[in-house]
Design brief:
The chain contains 19 helices and 49 strands. By secondary structure, the protein is α+β, with helices and mostly antiparallel strands. The chain has six domains: 1-33; 34-150, Sandwich (Immunoglobulin-like), CATH 2.60.40.10; 159-369, Galactose-binding domain-like (Jelly Rolls); 375-498, Jelly Rolls; 504-709 and 773-825, Glycosyltransferase (Alpha/alpha barrel); 852-936, Maltose phosphorylase, domain 3. Strands 19, 20, 24, 25, 26, 27, 32, 33, 34 and 35 form a ten-stranded mixed beta sheet that branches. Strand 39 and strand 40 form a beta hairpin. The longest helix has 22 residues, at 660-681. The radius of gyration is 30 Å and the shape is globular.
Length: 938
């Protein structure tokens, strides 16, 4: 439509008065013509794309904008306004009718976490939405591609389903485990997993069908002979007496006209830990027989609704899973399979009616996070037979998941698969299932088999199987009982973890650092199964310290915001009225008396703060602020002269131990500062001042207690010195001296690390923040023990628990070095004053021996990236900033005049503004776009 025609139509419609009568029509006419420079894309709701079954009243909506002409388009593109339409049907949305919410044109550049503000939403509500934006020239974009979300079960009364179980607990009491006969048939049969089924008819045309299910501890949902979805090990582990999670599925395509059947298998999980363990999950207050709550909502084309829900009319039995335990493994007897049990017209006359089960005492909440999925499959790189009939499959990678067995043999043949991450000297498997607790007394971590899956053949041709209700940490699978000699395709390894998507990357010219990145990635992913774990084999516990130390890495490299949001709800459920927190979350009660303290508990302060920093999430602060404040107030009751002495300290140090009060008080201070900042963000000015004042008192008390003068804190350990610098405790006038002492401590140890897991986070960041980039780099690339490089040389494919490698070989607690590489070496960091990468700090540290480094991150606003390369004495720094965002770029240079951008003087380039010279760098502010800076180096 040309401008002359537009003008004619405007005059015509004004003459008719139609502009007043039909403003929506006119807006759409002009919008189609005035397509601006931006396109909204990547719509998300509560960090999820097109989520099913939310149970928040006002879901938060986000999107990104991309240039119409591609990423290399004009610089400085910004959002000037936006409009959101939310409709109750796809048809209404297509017609541009926001019958649930039409925000109208809202002036502003906000594109993330905008709360829904339309009509009140009810259970099962379907919401379809789209957005358009206006750029800085007030030109409207086209509407985005449509997205949707659905509401879950918002009120208890909307559950028509009833809890059911196989038998009453009194009838199915599991006997005491006999360690001398751990696989006794009596014990197996008592622990067999239940299965349930229900047949129903579909006699009208279905518009949609949605399943809502909470099966404790784990479930597998099946419809008409097929598994529903690709989730594994649902629902995620929670404190079940406070909160259990249900999952929502679109099952429309799984149903058929006429006869239908739904079947559910249940596993024990952490809900029913039926053998003793060191963390007392067998004594958990929630522990009970597996139970099921499920309903399928059928919406018909004629507008009617029917619900198929669990109740005593369902039939129950036991199936082929005759034993399952979270750490023990699974025993599956294929001879007990009942073909067709999950289809219609199955003869279930031998089954008994399901028993009513006691409802769980806590909330039944939506699982609003990515599920666990099988991510990839690995083939063995080597097969050995260290003893006759004992076959060891080496997968070449320490990983988390399970083995898939392909086998053929006589019925009753029992194939046993044991999992581990190292071998004995004779080539057989060594399992990490025992360690010292309770004042050095050696005890078993738990009873029964450990990381062992057993499959009993049915003898009907080729059989392919993997477990349903457990997972393992391993590199090696030891197989016994295999009929014949196995080949490579008889055992494959299935990699599983919470299916968060990648969000970032790092690479550089040093291959050791690239390898460390790979190790960190495998450890992080393998230690997230609905919650962050310490290790995937021995414990599977949510150690809070391990998790917060690696959380910034997680924020940079993965879209795991929804996962962390869920875990913060677990903290909410675990915190006592006093403010006290346990060392593992979730817990059945263990961890309040030992294993906690500020260095661990601070996960409840730090992770919400990281979600705010890296994602601009103020909602997480608002939800948990009162609990965060409660925890800091609890620490005040434990402080004497501002010093907190409780809790674990710098765990597993390489050599030198740092006094616990040093690190505990350091976190007390850091937590108090964060609560003050959160209060200010949330508009609680009185709290902000009160906690800022308290933080200063703590800082003064800390220096009085630990500063020895001349740059020395406490015992002068690397951890003590770097703690004072990293946590901001050192007086500014003394920081140079403290830094000098830290550098001397590092050099005095041969440029080797001498810290535990806390110091491993402090050390690199403290050195970099105080200008000692080359020293930090020298420690990072060290290969002599103890070091990350030594681990790599020993064949590590994941990060280890201890520098000496004697413990677990898949832990994430030393993983912050990989975040440091992004923020320091590549120089890509968030600006705390404009969080979520609304404003990015690009400040690469050029160190001797490194010739290039690059990083990127998919931020809430889009891709931020940089790459620097030093060649022939010239530094080239490429920077990419998404629309609606800005950056500050630090270019090492002798002066402003020595910096060019795309071949022109940088100060004259479009979208670039020179700010100042500082610390040998020229500092520029840049608008969105892509830039190439160059400067000669000394």
């Amino acid at each position: 439509m040309g401008k002359r025609m537009q003008s004619f139509l405007k005059q015509f419609f004004f003459a008719l008065g139609a502009v007043v009568l039909l403003p929506g029509l006119m807006d759409s006419v002009w919008a189609e013509e005035a397509v601006g420079g931006l396109v909204p894309a990547n719509l998300s709701c509560e960090y999820l794309q097109n989520p099913w079954g939310l149970d928040v009243a006002k879901p938060r909506l986000s999107w990104q904008v991309t240039p119409v002409a591609g990423p290399a388009a004009a610089r400085g593109l910004k959002v000037g306004a936006y409009q959101i339409l939310v409709a109750g049907s796809a048809e209404s949305l297509k017609a541009d009718k926001g019958d649930l919410w039409d925000s109208g044109k809202i002036v502003g550049d906000k594109t993330i976490q905008i709360p829904y503000a339309g009509a009140v939403l009810g259970s099962f509500q379907k919401c379809f939405w789209k957005v358009r934006v206006w750029d800085q020239a007030d030109k409207a974009s086209a509407w985005s591609e449509p997205a949707f979300w659905t509401m879950g079960v918002l009120k208890p009364e909307d559950w028509t389903a009833k809890w059911i179980t196989l038998t009453r607990p009194a009838e199915r009491e599991v006997p005491e485990f006999d360690a001398k006969a751990p696989r006794s048939m009596e014990w197996r049969q008592k622990a067999a997993s239940p299965i349930f089924r229900k047949e129903f008819k579909v006699e009208k045309k279905i518009k949609s069908a949605t399943a809502y299910i909470c099966g404790l501890g784990y479930y597998e949902l099946r419809l008409n002979g097929k598994k529903v979805g690709d989730h594994e090990l649902d629902p995620a582990f929670t404190r079940f007496d406070q909160r259990s999670l249900y999952v929502t599925y679109d099952v429309t395509a799984a149903l058929q006209p006429g006869d239908n059947a739904v079947g559910v298998m249940l596993g024990n999980g952490f809900y029913n830990s039926h053998t003793r363990d060191a963390w007392d999950f067998d004594k958990a207050p929630w522990r009970d027989e597996p139970k099921l709550l499920a309903q399928i909502r059928l919406e018909y084309e004629d507008g009617s609704v029917e619900t198929v829900a669990t109740d005593p009319s369902w039939k129950a039995s036991t199936g082929p899973v005759v034993l399952d335990g979270t750490r023990q493994g699974e025993v599956y007897d294929a001879r007990k399979e009942m073909p067709g049990w999950d289809k219609g017209k199955f003869d279930d006359s031998a089954w008994k009616p399901a028993e009513p089960a006691k409802p769980i005492p806590g909330l039944v909440s939506a699982q609003m996070m990515p599920p666990i999925r099988q991510i990839e499959t690995l083939k063995p790189v080597k097969i050995t037979e260290p003893k006759p009939g004992v076959f060891v499959f080496d997968m070449g990678q320490n990983m988390t998941g399970w083995a898939q067995l392909k086998v053929q043999g006589p019925a009753g043949t029992k194939v046993e698969m044991r999992y581990g991450e190292r071998l004995k000297t004779d080539g057989t498997l060594e399992q990490l299932g025992e360690f010292k607790v309770n004042a050095g007394i050696a005890q078993h971590v738990f009873q029964g088999p450990f990381q062992t899956d057993t499959y009993i053949l049915k003898g009907q041709g080729e059989e392919v199987w993997h477990p349903h209700f457990d997972y393992h940490g391993f590199q090696y699978v030891e197989v016994t009982g295999f009929p014949g000699k196995p080949e490579a395709d008889n055992i494959t390894a299935c990699v599983l973890h919470t299916d968060f998507k990648p969000a970032g990357s790092f690479a550089c010219s040093n291959e050791l650092l690239n390898k460390i990145q790979t190790l960190t990635s495998w450890s992080y992913r393998g230690n997230y199964f609905g919650y962050p774990t310490d290790c995937p084999h021995r414990e599977k516990n949510g150690w809070t310290g391990d998790a917060h130390l690696a959380a910034e890495y997680g924020m940079l490299f993965f879209h795991n915001q929804a996962g962390y949001t869920k875990w913060m709800n677990d903290f909410f459920d675990e915190q006592r009225d006093s403010g006290e927190l346990p060392g593992i979350v979730p817990t059945g009660g263990w961890g309040y008396a030992w294993g906690n303290g500020p260095a661990w508990d601070s996960a409840y302060i730090l992770i919400p703060w990281y979600l705010y920093l890296y994602n601009g999430d103020t909602g997480i602060l608002a939800t948990h602020y009162d609990r965060m404040k409660r925890y800091v107030d609890y620490l005040q009751t434990k402080a004497k002269d501002e010093i907190v002495s409780i809790g674990l300290g710098d765990w597993v140090p390489a050599k030198t131990e740092t006094p616990v009060p040093v690190t505990s008080t350091g976190y007390y201070y850091a937590d108090t500062v964060i609560v003050s900042k959160a209060a200010k963000i949330l508009g609680r000015e009185a709290d902000a001042k009160a906690y800022a004042d308290r933080a200063e008192q703590i800082r003064q008390g800390y220096n009085k207690a630990f500063y020895k003068g001349d740059g020395v804190y406490a015992n002068g350990s690397q951890t003590a010195l770097s703690c004072a610098l990293y946590q901001g405790l050192a007086d500014p006038a003394e920081m140079k001296k403290v830094t000098e002492k830290l550098v001397a401590a590092v050099h005095g140890n041969g440029d080797k690390i001498d810290v535990g897991i806390l110091g491993a986070k402090y050390l690199f960041r403290a050195l970099t923040a105080n200008g000692q980039n080359d020293v930090a780099y020298a420690v990072a690339i060290q290969k002599a023990a103890p070091s990350y490089g030594w681990w790599v040389d020993q064949g590590a494919t994941t990060l280890w628990e201890e520098w000496a490698g004697t413990g677990s070989r898949n832990h994430i607690m030393f993983g912050d070095i990989s975040a440091w590489m992004v923020e320091a070496l590549a120089g890509l960091a968030v600006d705390p004053e404009q969080p979520g990468f609304k404003h990015t700090i690009v400040r690469p540290r050029i160190v001797e021996g490194l010739t290039w480094a690059k990083a990127e991150h998919q931020s809430p606003y889009g891709r931020v990236a940089d790459k620097w390369e030093l060649k022939n004495g010239v530094l080239t720094l490429s920077v990419s900033i998404p629309p609606n965002a800005t950056a500050q770029v630090h270019v090492p240079a002798a002066s402003e005049d020595g910096v060019t951008e795309s071949g022109k003087p940088a100060s004259q380039a479009a979208g670039v503004r020179f700010v100042k010279m500082a610390d040998g760098t020229a500092v520029f502010e840049v608008e969105s776009g892509e830039y190439v800076f160059s400067a000669k180096q000394k």
